[in-house]
Amino acid sequence: RAKLVEGGKILTCAHEAWGGYPFRFEVTCDRPKLELENGLAVQSVKLQALAQAYDPGHIIALLDGPTTLNIPSQPAVAISHDPVIGSYVASQAKGDIATVEFRNVVAAPFGTLTRAVVSLRKRSDDLQDFALDATGLTMTTGLNQTLAVDSLTVDATLADQTTFTLNSAKAIAGKLKATAQGSIMRDANNRPEGTVAITLSDPAEAALIAAQSFKLTPEQQSALTAALTLMGGKANLVAKDGQLSLGPLPIATLPPLN
């Protein structure tokens, strides 16, 4: 808990109970609430954690929901899920490793998730590895359309808290397979800047998914299909000067990062 405070995070419990000694160390936290520096807060029903006395550097945790996500100036988000399982291993030789598994997540109105495993490894003070393996994702776009992804895998590295390197990513959505590589950093104005190279297995299928997800007109869908086909199913997602572009086409404005 002291390490959380050092990182600008505060964990509180409505009721806290310790036990298990001398064979293990265990704690039960009712109504756990995690508060972050930026005003974001996460609250759930119960958090249980334990470590065996012979291996106190390995902590196993279980989080019972539902969970509420509070975002400043936004309505609270209610999230239902199966019990969340987490593991934390402290290791000077290999670096600290944290792994969390989520199942059957429903976060209206943002989307749903069948299963995801997230892993973080701290290799040094300024270098962290990130991995994601997820299946059964649905995401609601800003136009209230649903984007479905069958599976998503990500392997990435964060350096100096400023540069995010996407070593590899692969997504499957129906007949479409997409891969990506690249890096994103912060510019002088704290905005994302960098390039991610994307390869699509089927430009026409990609354009169809985009049309369904973002309500493109038939003319826009045809133009996108032609452009992606002309580029051989390859395109660069570019963040620069506060703009996000797909190749030469601007698609969004990027705000500064917190």
**Order of SSEs, N→C?**
HEEEEEEEEEEEEEEEEEHHEEE
- What average pLDDT do the residues reach? 89
In DSSP terms (H or I, runs of 4 or more residues), the helix count works out at 3
The proportion of residues forming helix, as a percent range, comes to: 10-25%
Measured on Cα atoms, how large is the radius of gyration?
A: 21 Å
- Beta-strand content: over 45%
**Shape descriptor:** elongated
Secondary-structure-based class equals mainly beta
Provide the low-confidence segments as ranges: none
The end-to-end span amounts to 23 Å
- Report the major sheet: 20 strands, antiparallel
User: Care to count the β-strands?
Assistant: 20
Give a description of the structure:
This protein is mainly beta and 258 residues long. The protein has a 20-stranded antiparallel beta sheet that branches. The longest helix is centred in the last third of the chain and has 13 residues. The protein starts with a helix and ends in a 5-residue tail after the last strand. The mean pLDDT is 89.
